[in-house]
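ugh ok fine here u go
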Amino acid sequence: MAVVVGYVPTKEGAAALRRAAAEAAVRQTPLIVLDSAHSDGQDQTPDARAQLEELADQDVSYEVRTLGPSEDATDELLRIAEDESADLLVIGLRRRSPVGKLILGANAQRILLDAACPVLAVKPAE
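structure:
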């Protein structure tokens, strides 16, 4: 059992990471972070490093996994959630215009429809 979060170094990714850490702490389960912006061996930006280092200050055990060069982020996120029998999968969503709200991003839609566990979609604060 774990909480799994898809992370990219954006305000949406930071919001998802914060919420996932809070959910993992409440549920007293580990947090698994899929850093899909940095494939194996690729350096993280200072912002990404700082956001991930904030996890050390929280009362949650966590593991950061990176995406392999040929791996699809959505497939890998769904696989991790299934392999780890995740309690919850957390993703970040960006705000959209009224017309844009009719169309959900393809990756978010796949995750919402294909995940074997509940999915929490988080928007960043304005």
